[in-house]
Amino acid sequence: MPRCDMVDVSNNNGTMTVANWKSMKKYGVRAMVAKLSEGTFFTDQTAKTSIRNAIKAGLHVNGYHFARFTTVAGAKAEAQMAARCALNAGLGKDAVIVLDFEATNLGWNRNAANIKAWVAEVKRMGYPKTDVYTMGSWTNSMPLNNHGRGGWIANYPSNPTGLKFYASYCGWQWTSTKHFPGCYGGFDVSQMYSNFYYGTATKATKPKKAIYYRYNPKMIYARTPINRYKDIKFKHKVDHFPADTVFSIAKVVKYGKITRFQLANGYYITSNKANVNRLYYSVNGGVKRVKSVRGTHRYKDKALKHVVDWQPAGTEFDVAKIVKYGYTTRIQLANGYYISGNKKINKFVK
């Protein structure tokens, strides 16, 4: 029979205990992949404990996201969901974040655009190791080679003895019904052909403590998809907005030990800095260099009324200082000219 190198689990398997994982180790299991999320609507509540217990048992830990997206924008939103869930579940940066792509096949071109957008966004969110899982019949419908030897492929032959399917990929999931002593039900098991999923099994990463705005930044943009609510308790959802949506903030309202942003129409959104960011650079923000996102004018005055010239997208500017202009800010250059202090127009360069 093929090896039992890696097991993937979800809420369908229940919460995995240390004893469960140790039982599997006796059969050669070295790594696990836990379901983290699905679409933008589901978080697997068993992932955190199952991952923590796998680490205690000495396994390498990874996570996967079940894709529901059909557009690039949807892929980015789901990537943000996956990365947040990975962090909250305790996965470190050495973990592989897998895209489980088996719901909708839109053909090579659209699949490629969507998958590449998902991978890029997960990496931007701080997880450099990604892979794509799919079924054997879909391997020619999408890019799988993300890191030199990519792809984790499912194919369940009736008799896998002596077989070594998909040896040029990262791994082959050869059954979904493997049973282990002391563990409930059948499990998805894979034979791996590289060490990509075998990152160091260390202590779980603690979720970062949420930081909330205590002052009114006036204008913010969404780092992640966010909801608007009728009430400060966030029990009555009004609607949903994608990342990069800009909001004008009427005021900051206390809610227990945290705060909420209230909009002019009375609705509420989060003030968590992980989800929203001020739109304009602050005067004392320490910004030294910015890059034009889509091209920008330079101006003689901070009111931005007297145009000097046009600078194309990608132009980088050295910042002399950030100056206030009403509720916004401007970037003053060394030559005395001004450009917008809007982060979506001129982004920060590290």
| pLDDT averaged residue by residue | 93
- Gross morphology: elongated
Q: Give the SSE order as H and E letters.
A: EHEEHEHEHEEEEEEEEEEEEEEEEEEE
Distance between the termini: 51 Å
CATH architecture of the largest domain: Alpha-Beta Barrel
Q: How many helix segments?
A: 4
Radius of gyration: 24 Å
The name of the CATH topology of the largest domain is TIM Barrel
Side by side, the strands of the main sheet go: 1-2-4-5-6-7-8-9
User: How many distinct beta strands?
Assistant: 24
Characterise this structure.
Helix content is 15%, strand content 33%. It has helices at residues 18-25, 47-56, 72-88, 108-124; strands at residues 6-9, 31-38, 42-43, 60-66, 97-100, 130-135, 152-154, 171-178, 187-192, 219-222, 226-229, 237-241, 246-248, 251-255, 258-262, 268-270, 276-278, 289-292, 296-299, 307-311, 316-325, 328-333, 338-340, 346-348. With 350 residues, the protein is α+β, with helices and mostly antiparallel strands. The strands form 6 sheets. Strands 1-2-4-5-6-7-8-9 form an 8-stranded mixed barrel. It has a 5-stranded antiparallel beta sheet with strand order 23-22-21-18-24, with no helix packed on it. It is built from 4 helices and 24 strands. The mean pLDDT is 93. Strand 5, helix 4 (108-124) and strand 6 (130-135) form a beta-alpha-beta unit. The chain folds into 3 domains: 6-192, TIM Barrel (Alpha-Beta Barrel), CATH 3.20.20; 221-278; 289-348, SH3 type barrels, CATH 2.30.30.
